[in-house]
What we know:
Layout: H1 5-10, E1 16-18, H2 27-35, E2 39-43, H3 50-63, E3 69-74, H4 83-92, E4 97-102, H5 106-114, E5 118-123, H6 126-135, E6 139-143, H7 158-166, E7 173-176, H8 182-191, E8 196-198, H9 200-203, H10 212-220, E9 226-229, E10 237-240, H11 243-253, H12 258-261, H13 267-276, H14 299-320
Parallel strand pairs: 1-2, 1-8, 2-3, 3-4, 4-5, 5-6, 6-7, 7-8
Antiparallel strand pairs: 9-10
Amino acid sequence: MLQTRFTKLVGVEHPIVQGGMQWVGRAELVAAVANAGALGFITALTQPTPEDLTKEIARCRDLTDKPFGVNLTILPAIKPPPYAEYRAAIIDAGIKVVETAGNKPQEHVDEFRKHGVKVVHKCTSVRHALSAERMGVDAISIDGFECAGHPGEDDTPGLILIPAAANKIKIPMIASGGFADARGLVAALALGADGINMGTRFMATRESPIHQLIKEKIVANDERETELIFRTMRNTSRVAKNEISTKVVAMEKEGAKFEDIRELVAGARGKMVYATGNSDEGIWSAGQVQGLIKDIPTCAELISRIVREAEAIIRSRLEGMIVQPQREAAE
Length: 331
């Protein structure tokens, strides 16, 4: 068993996290991750109202007695969700760990910590991680350029970002973006992280609540099958490459503003992708890690495989590389 500062902090067996994913982070997936000894997060804003979130948390509790958390993403919006009400629903439900992401979460951090809730803040740069640490969060999730969703605007890959953050961050830190297997977990630990966060990899599991055809599309795709949209608006998002994302990128190059592409990138269309299995119906998030995903296992199979193979890499492959210098024969 691999024990780290992060597993001790949140009370789970394995240093593996299933982070928040819009339309995907539902009770059945989160409970399967929890039952396998890792940490799953329900995505709060996937639920239409705070009341629906309360019901989803209860549904997850019916499926597991292990620890799990809730993700609350705070992003600019034309009509912002009632964040304070979602936060209250999380606290009232007795959730003990929350993943925050997006804008400065100070108000939320203060309120969560007042109620004994541990906060893991997701960020895409060392400076933002240090800012979150000063705000009092309990752990950092550092997101490299390879990730699905929002990689920030610095374009710093995990191989640099993770150790750069580890050099300066004192609290536990998990590595996000580009992780799918044991090799990634061992690499993240070697780079200074205390565990890994996986999104796209957990989308392609049996318990993932998305259409089978989308899971099969993730398996079929290679590492080149993503697009970066909203680059010209400095709100970059990595999504699966399809007819719509390719069109959006082309329109941006021609000077399109958000109003021009609003209908193409509507969240309702992205939600339909997961419901219908038509991968060209809307924009949907996927990382470059698609190139490493070759099957659709259960969460239990995936997590046990990663931990088992990680231990084998550490014990056999890496340890086997250490050769003691032979002493020169006495003259």
